[in-house]
Amino acid sequence: MKKLYLVSLMSGVFLLSGCGGESELSGTPTSTAYEDYIQTSLNQPTNVVYTLQGANADVPFPTFALMNTVDGTLEIPTSGNENLSNPIAAMGQVDGWSTTQPIAINFDSPLSATPSTTSVTIVKLTEGLTGSSPLPEKLLTYGDDYVLQTSGNTLVVVLLKDLSGSSEYIISVNNSLLDSNGLSVGTSQSYAALKSKTKIYTEGSLASAQKVVQGVESLIAAGSGGSIDPNDIVYSTWFSTQSIGATLYATKAMLAAAQAPNTDYSDIWKGSANPNNIDSIDVNSIGSMTFGTSVDFATALANDDNFNTYLKLTDTERNAVIANYNNTTPLAVSVTKGVVKLPYYLETGDNWNTQPFESGTDSLAIANSIIGDDAERTNFVDQLKDHSIDPNTFMSDPSSLLPELMGLSFTKLDGSTFDSERIVTRYSPVPAVKSIQEVNFLLYTPTNGQISGIVVYQHGITSAKENAYFFASNLVNAGQAVIAIDAPIHGDRTLPNGKSAQDDVLNYMNLTVLPVARDNIRQSMLDIMTLRMALSTNQLTGGFIGTALATLPSTLTTPPAFIGHSLGGVLGVPAITQANAPLNDSVDPLFKFSRAAFVNSGGQIANLLLGSTSFGPLVAHNVALSAGLGYDAFVSSRACDQYAVDPDTYYDSCLDAFKREDPTTNNERILTATTEFSYAVQTVLDTADPYTNATLLKALSTPIYMAQVKDDGTVPNHVPGLVDQGQGVSKYVQQSLFAGTEPLATKLGLTVVRNNEGGSTEATPFVRFSDIGKHSSYISVQDVTTYQDLAHHIEMQSQVTSFIATGNAVISNSSSVLE
To answer: What is the pLDDT of residue 54?
Structure first.
């Protein structure tokens, strides 16, 4: 395993207020009479960097100390820049720490290159330290759950498995960690003040911090079975991890709640949950589907200019698809265009790229904090009664009242609102609806009407639903109807201002405002889930009578399947996970998918992008421009103009030219900037990431097919990190054990299939194709000159079609297409 290159972002700083100006908190030695073992630790030549106050305030994170105690979000100092374009401020939009990122703890001198395996202890707790009785739940194991590395003055905890979402953890470092001279590390003045029992603080935030530290040390001793002596601990903290998939699941629950008798969607999305006052008729049209006239595949494609426009193809290429259809299965496939009404939780106006989701409810965390005051509680209870909500139910199980709470805004005695920010967190998980969109779909069905099932298809980034024309007939000939919609800001869903991912991938992959980037993908996932629901609700109400889906078997007993290519699979993993996560027996069939195929997709989105040959240079270029490295001035000097002749290599060439100006320093500075950025990005995205959601997907036992091509340049197989001193693959990113296709397939527990491994029929395969195949060979043959990947395309299509139609992928390597 390669060493991680550490950066400053992995340490946070905060000023502990209300502490009475204790000098030890600023790191200044004092005359405080500490216990002998603490004084010995302070006298060590190498000490942990942990200072609570002053100009050098510095604490490692993750930590409870950098969380907002009122709303449960991260609260890292932003130096006054609260704009969400600041990645640190963007991290303040999440309800806990990342479940996948490494933990870095700095010391003031170099550490041993081989840290003791017992120097760090991590324990999962039953509840947080503010709970009634937190207890150790699980002791994490070195070599199984995590490993340790050092880099200069920094100790790094590298996670081998992601942490559980919405969970509480404690971590400690003890004096078995040695410095580069072989001496035990020591503690800091600030930590000593919290650790010591010679002076107990009784009020203010310092008293709380002291209780936490002393509580953590006791729980570390208990959780380790007594193997760790609290006296040996030089640093510890407690932290909460963020929720995984909470918004997708809770929004599904609200869609389900609207299916109850005498309940409409407008009963859920009302008041502040419908801030644009969308007419109730429109809100209640959520999920409705209308169908055009079905025509033969050849006629449909010949008249569908979107195929050329959105896929940027020529009439020659369109005619080739038509000719292939006419020569193989003429008149067998019908195409129907239609519209499905979907709730849109994003903005479409001037703030389309700056405003993330806004919650449809006040945060329960904020409400709980406010009603700690008796007078405020009485006021709140009165407001609940005004809305016919039982206060006792709220106090005992507030989440059960989410449908009733949607759209309500509560006020304090002074007239101010409970929650003016309306950040979407696990405590306020359902977004307000901003518009109801008429989303066009393409539907492919057997002309003979013999349909055995339906599959939802999701395209990749910068593509469009029309790329299903390339392969839909294969599925239709196997009895499967295929329905496809555009992802937001793609294809027909180009914004009113003309912005689309086809025009600029950054319109969707928003690198400037990370919470909007996260919510672009969450909107996409919710679209998939709502479309799935719509298939059942329309069928149940007779909406398919007289349409191309009139003979579709019941979607309640024969649930739809899913296919996602590239981004489509990235979106599909969380969407299928939360769609299949149980609510209750009466509504679960409305959302269930029978199986899913994810082709050339992967997880841990931040490092996946940076490790991508296609996207890594683009991301690194944009990060470097705003990182204060001098790269912006370099580009502005027109030093890269010569590379503009080749847009595909421009960013990489420009970055390389900048590195050559000062090879050692500039390469290091770029990697530092991208690593810092990646940490922030992944912290924001973890809640909706395929890798983090895959834990539940595996537990649900949903049959999954995955495939990759060796050395995929768009979605990397894996991300090995810096190679060949910055000149090889993944040169803009650190090694990431969770990024790419292979880690996701491993986490899902799929059966590896390659040349000498796997069977001819597999129910849950991970098929590894050779590098003759290309990223989009599943969609169509990519080498249109020599057709080298034709056999790969045919085999990919055959495998996915058999998996979707029968539940088992029929696998052949007769053409030597496997790795």
So the answer is: 75
Sequence letter at residue 185: V
| Average pLDDT of span 350-371 | 98
Residue whose C-alpha is closest to residue 457's, from 432, 423, 480: 480
Side-chain-facing half-sphere of 25: CA atoms under 13 Å: 20
Rounded Cα–Cα distance for residues 82 and 515 (Å): 13
Characterize the bridge pairing of strands 120-125 and 168-174. Answer: antiparallel
Residue type, 457: Y
Tokens of 785: 């000159």
Pairing of strands 146-151, 154-159: antiparallel
* CA atoms within 13 A of residue 44's CA, in its CB half-sphere: 33
Please tell me the total number of residues recorded for the chain in this structure: 819
Ramachandran assignment for 610, one of left (phi > 0), alpha (psi -120 to 50 degrees), beta (any other): alpha
- Report the distance separating Cα 461 and Cα 773, nearest Å: 19
Task: Report the alpha-carbon distance of residue 746 to residue 744 in Å, rounded.
Answer: 5
Predicted local confidence at residue 56, as pLDDT? 78
* Residue that is written with structure tokens 């919710």 in the block: 526
**Model pTM greater than 0.85?**
yes
* Among candidate residues 324, 357, 465, 422, the one with its CA nearest the CA of residue 787: 324
Exposure string (b/e) for 525-545, b if CB count within 10 Å is 16 or more? bbbbbbbbbbbbbbbeeebbe
Distances in whole angstroms, Cα of residue 544 to Cα of each of 450, 534, 537, 540, 622: 15, 11, 10, 9, 47
DSSP 494-551: --TTS--TTT-GGGTS-SSSHHHHHHHHHHHHHHHHHHHHHHHHHHHTTTTTTSTTTT
Alpha carbon distance 105, 110 (integer Å): 12
DSSP 420: S
How distant, in Å, are the alpha carbons of 83, 205, 294, 683, 708 from that of 89? 6, 23, 50, 12, 36
Instruction: Tell me the CA distances in angstroms from 444 to 332, 527, 567, 596, one per residue in order.
Output: 10, 19, 22, 18
Nearest-angstrom CA–CA distance, 222 and 232: 14
CB neighbours of 343 closer than 8 A, spacing ≥ 6? 265, 269, 283, 286, 433, 435, 436, 437, 526, 530
Q: How many CA atoms lie within 13 A of 186 on its CB side?
A: 17
Considering only 195-199, 577-581, 695-699, which range has the smallest mean pLDDT?
195-199
- On the question of pLDDT at 21 being above 80, the answer is no
**Between helices 663-685 and 514-540, what is the axis angle to 10°?**
40
SS3 493: helix
Task: Measure the CA–CA gap between 259 and 590, rounded to whole angstroms.
Answer: 10
Position 93 pLDDT exceeds 80: yes
Question: Residue 473, SS3?
Answer: helix
Rg, C-alpha atoms of the chain: 28
> What's the CA gap between 812 and 814, in Å, rounded?
6
Q: What is the pLDDT of residues 156-172, one digit of tens each?
A: 999 999 999 999 999 99
The domain segmentation of the chain, as residue ranges, is 8-240, 246-356+432-558, 605-810
Q: What are residue 103's phi and psi, to 5 degrees? A: -110, 125
CB contact at 8 A, 381 and 543? no
Spatial CA neighbour of 184 closest among 51, 49, 60, 41: 41
Average pLDDT, the chain: 95
Look up tokens 């029309």; give the residue: 466
